[in-house]
Design goal:
This protein is of the alpha+beta class. It has a 4-stranded antiparallel beta sheet with strand order 3-2-1-7. It has a 3-stranded antiparallel beta sheet with strand order 4-5-6. It starts with a strand and ends with a strand. It is built from 2 helices and 7 strands, in the order βββαβββαβ. The structure holds zinc ion (ZN). The site of zinc ion has 8 residues, from loops.
């Protein structure tokens, strides 16, 4: 599991985002087990059950503490995980702008 610091797409409030990167796929909190959920929450990630109009289903997602909007799985990789991962590969020797906790 990885936790990155980003900001809410809606209100720009800083927030922590937890996800999994496996092979070339990114998975959100909906795939976490109880232990992983507890761990992410203990690191300050807000994870709540949300309803996705896109997929018409409810699932656990990274949620903004200020406005309550969430990052859908659909947007997790492209907006949050991918830029960060690219940054790691390109700037290994430089201090990353995002803090990632590998747990
Ligand atoms: Zn927000």
């Amino acid at each position: 599991m990885m936790i990155t610091e980003g900001s809410c797409w809606k209100c720009n409030e800083p927030m922590k985002i937890a996800f999994y990167q496996k092979a070339s796929s990114t998975f959100g909190p909906g795939t976490f087990n109880e232990h992983e959920l507890a761990l992410a929450r203990s690191k300050g990630v807000i994870i709540k059950e949300q309803y996705s109009k896109l997929t018409n289903e409810r699932y656990l997602a990274n949620t903004c503490r200020k406005c309550g909007n969430f990052i859908g799985d659909h947007y997790l990789f492209i907006n949050y995980a991918a830029p960060h991962i690219v940054r790691i590969y390109l700037q290994k020797s430089m201090k990353p702008a995002f803090i990632v906790i590998n747990v």
